[in-house]
Amino acid sequence: MNQDFRLQLPDADATAAFGARLAAVLPSRLTVYLEGDLGAGKTTLVRALLQAVGHEGRVRSPTYTLIEPYRVNGRAFYHLDLYRVADAEELEYLGLRDLVSEPCVLLVEWPSRGAGVLPLADLVIALAPAGDGREARLLPATPAGREVLNRLGFT
Known about the structure:
The protein is an alpha/beta fold.
């Protein structure tokens, strides 16, 4: 059984700092599901992660484009926001299968809307309000996800 871990993120800066910590331990292939209500901090976390791996420039929320690709230091990252997806089959038309044929990090917001088409999660990060900040619940779903949490010091 997979154990989940909880991390208190008192403000946006703490969320960004966690994104940078996560970036430092990511393997070249990983699927991360980001769960939480609108405004929970999912895009803030992705933005910090991408900036920490060396992306320069704006990190846009892919709410309308659905997928934003990033090539950083020879690595592929894809930020997906599936909030507006009505049918998971839409992801086939967007070329998701081709994207995941290469080593890449998938960062997926609203993953339940891609069920059955998305690759299974290695790591699930659920963000929820907690006091004035938020709490991140980290759930490893594969050995790769467990290794990421081990590298972050969660054991």
